[in-house]
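Example protein as discussed:

>
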Amino acid sequence: MLVLGFTTQAQTDQDVSTLVDGKDFPNPVFISPDPPKPIKGWEITKVSNEKILQGEYPGEIIKFRFKGTAVGILVYSDNNSGIIEYSLDGQPWFELDVYSNKSDATLKGFTLNKDLKNRKHTLQIRIVEKRNPESSGTSIALRSFYFNKE
């Protein structure tokens, strides 16, 4: 397992806030993944001229630490997208299929938990081997983490 550091610089793109539930995230904070060193199976690349963390293969666990009451991720989803598992604060792992039947990458927001106590939390994410039967791959294109800062 590899613990990553992420930049604390919030993204200022107001357009992405429309992709999150305004009720659960009235003032979302968007954080770009920015690992301090290369991660096996993951690389920094660009989609639609935005820096993203691209994962192709099952591998290392990525950790994101934050303080707030809700958390989600923004990913570029297409017909090559895969499935991730995520866990909060060492709890059981949940599966999330980010596949889309579109051939062009579309930015989507996924709320992972909206009922957290207002304290520090750790989100872990990993790509899994299985995939949606319609998908041509297991790729994950992570644009941002977002959380509700109280």
